[in-house]
């Protein structure tokens, strides 16, 4: 029974949802979970299942440890995927170019959004099951508009929104679909409304917006209809979760102009959860049936910290691994919390928190981890203890039960120095297999249109190293992919970006970092791993080029590709890019990237993406990382000459 919902959301300008539907749906993407299970032992060890080398966007895990996730397939497209514990399924689309997931119930039903025609970037809500395939939840005749499905319970009821063409201030209405796909308009409170989450009783939590853009959290029930939950004294509030008891968690503006997390119950109304300090905001991320709420504290001009709130202890910060920031991402019914926290060198590490003993670095719980593999963030946890995590080898599932006759685990692809045109580039990766008698074969895909090549495998007793080399004939940014298959036919795939420098290259870079909450303006509570790459070359006359550069940046279902570079500035250890491109394959947006190397090997980064509203001619920010500090080795930037 699904009673817990996690969501990264907080849109302030609903019109932008219609301009940027993929970003909007990711920003409001729900992560529901199901009935309580038993907590696993404190010293649980995990095995790794590779889910995707290129996951980018919403995901969910159910009580059984099955996973629905969104995968970047290139060409500014994402596709919905499902892992049922044994095999992988491609969910397809409603006829368009791409799809994504938002929620998964214990019956294996998935809801999300999909493009419905090759010519449209609008997305329609869908329901998918293995028996029916992908079915649209969109109601004609408004096929040109966007709809969304954010949550599904174990009865098959779905929460989301449909377009509503009534009063001008009500373009969207919160909607609940029945198990038979019949839509019910839940109404609104003087503005557009969204149904974000629902419990097993069919009660719904969501938010509305008025003409000024202020939000109001609501709860909807069969008996009482839509009820506004009020605020903590400020202008707006947002609901993010509803549990078995019909209690709602969210965050609200205060009279002092801050944002505090709240818990609403029918008996007590809205309770301010804190923080109890005048220089910090707090945002709820998820809660369970015990009214345990998790979230993120943002200290003004300071770090981010993960918190857990209970009625007995109040708000507790969870700490870090010696670094500056920590983010809570999910909680299960037994009360286990997962997230990411920085170490002293600024590098991000996936954590598990169980109420005693502080944060556990999940990297210490993988006995068969290949050398170089790092879990950077734990994003979701099932009631049976399975964990979905980001790593430098892609999205993985951590399974607490040991097993044999399973796919091998592959570490990140390593390169032997700077990649240059017409020079052989050596690549390698380490492999570990719980079946020591297995043998392995490997295939390299170079991403430049050349033929795939077999890798050179050296192995003994379940440990292997895969090598290869390739010569690129043109400068650019390429995706190198490695697939390792064992003698039983089971395989795992990893990939990485490689920046290949030509003879005129003078600047190149690639890397990853944790994108903080607040960076995505239509998803202020969302955080996650972000990656980028760039390359600049001299013009034929020897001058440094301003237009011959590449920039690719992606995080949390937001993908940017540069189409032009207007300026590249190098000043010692500081570099700056500025230009234009597309966001999720559409629009005409501007970008700026600034990076500065530090003596300790870390880099201070700032990436900003924005567009101009044609109606008002005002600049609207789509993404702003602010100044962030990436861990040592996470970013490689340097002069190529």
TrEMBL record:
Gene3D superfamilies: Immunoglobulins
The PKD domain, residue ranges: 444-500
Classification via SMART domains: PKD
InterPro entries reported in the protein's UniProt record: HAF_rpt, Ig-like_fold, PKD/Chitinase_dom, PKD_dom, PKD_dom_sf
Pfam families xrefs: PKD_4
SUPFAM superfamilies: PKD domain
Annotated CDD domains: PKD
Key words, A-Z: Signal
Signal peptide: 1-26
Protein name: PKD domain-containing protein
Top-level taxonomy: Bacteria, Pseudomonadati, Pseudomonadota, Betaproteobacteria, Burkholderiales
């Amino acid at each position: 029974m699904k009673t817990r919902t996690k969501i990264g959301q907080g849109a302030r300008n609903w019109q932008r949802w219609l301009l940027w539907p993929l970003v909007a749906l990711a920003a409001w993407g729900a992560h529901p979970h199901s009935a309580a299970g038993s907590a696993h032992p404190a010293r649980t060890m995990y095995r790794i299942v590779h889910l995707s080398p290129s996951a980018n966007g919403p995901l969910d895990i159910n009580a059984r440890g099955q996973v629905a996730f969104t995968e970047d397939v290139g060409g500014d497209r994402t596709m919905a995927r499902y892992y049922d514990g044994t095999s992988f399924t491609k969910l397809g689309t409603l006829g368009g170019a791409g799809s994504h997931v938002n929620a998964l119930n214990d019956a294996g039903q998935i809801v999300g959004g999909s493009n419905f025609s090759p010519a449209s970037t609008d997305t329609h809500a869908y329901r998918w099951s293995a028996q029916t395939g992908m079915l649209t939840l969109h109601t004609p005749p408004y096929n040109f508009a966007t709809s969304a499905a954010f949550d599904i319970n174990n009865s098959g009821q779905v929460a989301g929104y449909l377009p509503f063409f009534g009063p001008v201030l009500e373009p969207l209405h919160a909607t609940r679909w029945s198990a038979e796909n019949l839509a019910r308009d839940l109404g609104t409170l003087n503005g557009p409304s969204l149904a974000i989450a629902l419990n097993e009783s069919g009660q719904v939590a969501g938010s509305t917006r008025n003409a000024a853009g202020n939000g109001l959290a609501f709860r909807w029930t069969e008996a009482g209809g839509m009820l506004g939950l009020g605020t903590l004294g400020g202008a707006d509030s947002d609901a993010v979760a509803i549990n078995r008891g019909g209690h709602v968690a969210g965050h609200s503006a205060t009279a002092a102009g801050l944002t505090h997390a709240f818990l609403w119950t029918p008996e007590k109304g809205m309770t301010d959860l804190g923080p109890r300090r005048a220089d910090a905001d707090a945002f709820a991320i998820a809660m369970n049936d015990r009214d345990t709420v998790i979230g993120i504290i943002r200290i003004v001009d300071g770090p981010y910290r993960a918190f857990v709130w209970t009625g007995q202890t109040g708000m507790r910060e969870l700490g870090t691994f010696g670094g500056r920031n920590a983010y809570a991402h999910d909680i299960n019914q037994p009360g286990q919390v997962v997230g990411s926290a920085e170490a002293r060198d600024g590098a991000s590490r996936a954590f598990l928190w169980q109420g005693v003993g502080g944060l556990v670095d999940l990297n210490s719980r993988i006995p068969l981890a290949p050398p170089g593999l790092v879990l950077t963030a734990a994003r979701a946890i099932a009631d049976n203890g399975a964990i979905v995590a980001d790593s430098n080898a892609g999205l993985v599932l951590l399974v607490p039960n040991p097993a044999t006759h399973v796919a091998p685990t592959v570490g990140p692809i390593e390169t032997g120095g700077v990649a240059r045109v017409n020079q052989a580039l050596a690549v390698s990766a380490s492999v570990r297999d719980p079946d020591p008698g297995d043998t392995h074969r490997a295939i390299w895909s170079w991403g430049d249109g050349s033929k795939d090549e077999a890798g050179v495998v050296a192995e003994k007793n379940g440990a292997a190293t895969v090598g290869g080399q390739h010569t690129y004939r043109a400068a650019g940014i390429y995706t190198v992919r490695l697939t390792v298959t064992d003698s039983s036919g089971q395989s795992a795939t990893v990939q990485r970006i490689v920046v290949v420098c030509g003879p005129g290259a003078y600047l190149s870079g690639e890397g990853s970092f944790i994108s903080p909450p607040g960076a995505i303006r239509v998803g202020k509570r969302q955080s996650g791993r972000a990656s980028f790459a760039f390359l600049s070359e001299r013009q034929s006359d020897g001058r440094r080029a301003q237009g011959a550069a590449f920039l690719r940046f992606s995080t949390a279902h937001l993908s940017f590709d540069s189409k032009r570079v207007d300026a590249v500035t190098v000043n010692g250890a500081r570099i700056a890019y500025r230009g234009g491109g597309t966001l999720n394959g559409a629009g005409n947006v501007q970008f700026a990237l600034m990076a500065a190397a530090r003596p300790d090997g870390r880099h201070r980064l700032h990436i900003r993406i924005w567009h101009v509203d044609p109606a008002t001619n005002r600049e609207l920010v789509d993404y702003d990382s602010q100044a962030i500090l990436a861990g040592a080795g996470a970013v490689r930037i340097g002069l190529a000459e």
